[in-house]
């Protein structure tokens, strides 16, 4: 429906005055669901993070209130800090690499003939559509230490990768994780930036070209400012997603990674909470992750709200 | 004509300036080939990238068609001669796939249904009515999307546990619906706003009741939006792994992603049967890839136009 009329603001306002209860009735089911399934858990998380859970609580004893004890315990725990730093570093590397490759591919899609661009788009779509567990299973097979095609190809190229195990060492474990995550995330970035690029009017670029602006100048002077909102949004989403990556790390740990050396925040919460039943400590880390995410996304939420109006 | 001193000139991308008649033929011969060369090189680069990106999906497919003996002896098979569907038969006959498929279908069906109905009602309220609290609701919807699942799963596990809903279709569907409802509200809100109220009002002037006008005029125009948000909910519910792993601990209540993880682990107890594992991954991925190819354009363009307009 391309025709969008600017409907006068009086009409809905009038209706709202006449039947003020209708919108609330329409909202009620969604609000109830969000309260039950999200707001209550957030509250529980906050409450639990102030209590001490141990073996006794697994047998029904009520948890003891310890104030900020769990947080204090975590802050002084060098194990947690290494997990936090590892998560931040992993998140930054992945987000930056994903953005760089995604933007380059978007520019490439614009620069090549249509048919070629279509081939590239279809193969990116395939990667984007893969369910994460299926994708992880395939990559595990590609990096398999005995029969994996990666080891085979590297050996063919003259390196000795016969029987090389990628997941044993934390550094190469995270290298594999980065390869998989970048593979899965680049399509979203590439398509979003590409869609942003197609909104840059060709006439403006041509005019700039006639005025003597070279490719680099056209990029930094015209294209970049126009796609900046898209870039900012996509980067933010990448940072948020990469910060809380769980499935990929968990599944790679299944495949032979050493959990204590490869935990990120998500798998750490899982290990502390589900694994050891220390709900207090797990909740404290969860609250930390929640706070971190909200802090990061705040600027974006504020921009969106500003346009929303009253 | 503005020239920027020190800026590198790139003849291949600068448009030919109107040249003097004597030099025109030479330029005419020289420039297009240079530009063609660049375009050709970029095309090759794009096709190579496409091949690399699609390779894991290709590898999954051909590995699923080959017996394990051929996958694990000798060098990798890059082209499936003597392909067969034996791996798929073996997976289906293993007896665990169909229960997981049933579980996934039930969970997905409930999630999609609930998400569409609730989000549609809420979207109507937000885009057709002005009322007190509208702004805070939109604000909440935005914030909720930023909540990291990995920061909440312990609380949601305890929540379902206390409601006796662990391992149940209802329990996990409620959590999934709550997770997708914010984004589907966001998506549908744009579609609802795109249908002018005047159309409905005109139909009412022509003698239809409010309900009839809504069903005959507005609903058909909203169909694409409802379908797009339904597919979004489908993809989320079908692919979700983390929550399912935590709140469906029972062997009998696994959704397909959790089942696939278990299948790989069971298979890995001695030597992984990669043929069967790849067949299992293909069974999980194919419906998603199909649905995804249908709707991704709408989803990306919706997101990007929101960001650009903002």
From TrEMBL, chain A:
Recorded topology in the membrane: Multi-pass membrane protein
Using the record, list the residue span of the signal peptide; answer none if the entry has no such feature: none
Q: Which CDD domains match?
A: TM_PBP2
The yes or no answer to whether the keyword Transmembrane is present is yes
Under InterPro entries, the record lists: MetI-like, MetI-like_sf, UgpAE/MalFG_permease
Keywords carried by this UniProt record: Cell membrane, Membrane, Transmembrane, Transmembrane helix, Transport
Locations listed in the record? Cell membrane
PANTHER family with a match to the protein in the record: BLL4140 PROTEIN, DIACETYLCHITOBIOSE UPTAKE SYSTEM PERMEASE PROTEIN DASB
Q: Which family does it belong to?
A: Belongs to the binding-protein-dependent transport system permease family.
Name of the protein this chain belongs to: Sugar ABC transporter permease
Starting at the broadest rank, the lineage of the source organism is: Bacteria, Bacillati, Actinomycetota, Actinomycetes, Micrococcales
TrEMBL record, chain B:
Q: Which organism is it from?
A: Cellulomonas chengniuliangii
* Bilayer topology: Multi-pass membrane protein
Where does the record place it? Cell membrane
> What protein name is recorded for this chain?
Carbohydrate ABC transporter permease
Q: Which family does it belong to?
A: Belongs to the binding-protein-dependent transport system permease family.
Residue ranges of domain ABC transmembrane type-1 in the record: 101-295
Identify the stretch annotated as signal peptide in this record. Answer: none
Q: Where are the transmembrane segments?
A: 36-61, 103-125, 137-157, 169-192, 213-235, 274-295
Q: Which controlled-vocabulary keywords does the entry list? A: Cell membrane, Membrane, Transmembrane, Transmembrane helix, Transport
